[in-house]
């Protein structure tokens, strides 16, 4: 599901990809449902391609979002990410991802991640599992003939 959720540089919020054209994408805002074009010149990033630095490796964003969802019992984040100071943000994020790299994960990154989480929850998107994993799990569950 996160593969079709996009962040577009210069535009607030998150967007769902609706249509892929030759030189642009048609995207729909998750907050106000307005459709707008995103051109090749825009910096568009799929949430499915984002990972968070840890001490050992990188953790895919879907795992971090799932951890936040478990911590918050499926509700919006309990911390006010826009008003929290950097230490509060780091402390909260350490509860979600204890091994995150404090040197490379900035408070602004944590704010953006919590903002994205809240937008996704408000939009009713609560399953952060990548589609490829869902398909392979379904294939394993089906008996072979």
Task: Describe the fold and architecture.
This protein is globular. Helix 2 crosses helix 3. It has a five-stranded antiparallel sheet with strand order 4-3-2-1-5, with no helix packed on it. The longest helix has 16 residues. With 145 residues, the chain is of the alpha+beta class. 34% of the residues lie in helices and 21% in strands. About 6% of the residues have low confidence.
Main features:
145 residues, alpha+beta, five-stranded antiparallel beta sheet, two-stranded antiparallel sheet
Q: How is this fold's topology laid out?
A:
Layout: E1 5-8, E2 15-20, E3 24-29, E4 35-39, E5 44-46, E6 51-53, E7 58-60, H1 61-71, H2 86-96, H3 107-122, H4 131-141
Antiparallel strand pairs: 1-2, 1-5, 2-3, 3-4, 6-7
């Amino acid at each position: 599901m996160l593969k079709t959720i996009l962040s577009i540089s210069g535009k607030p919020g998150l967007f769902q990809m609706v249509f892929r054209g030759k030189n642009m994408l048609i995207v729909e805002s998750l907050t106000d449902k307005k459709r707008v074009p995103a051109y090749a010149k825009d910096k568009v990033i799929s949430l499915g391609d984002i990972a968070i630095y840890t001490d050992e490796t990188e953790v895919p964003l879907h795992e971090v979002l799932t951890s936040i969802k478990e911590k918050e019992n499926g509700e919006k984040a309990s911390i006010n990410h826009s008003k929290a100071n950097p230490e509060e943000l780091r402390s909260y994020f350490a509860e979600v991802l204890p091994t995150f790299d404090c040197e490379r994960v900035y408070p602004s990154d944590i704010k953006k991640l919590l903002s994205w989480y809240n937008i996704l929850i408000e939009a009713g998107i609560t399953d952060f599992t990548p589609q490829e994993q869902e398909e392979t799990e379904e294939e394993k569950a089906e008996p072979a003939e």
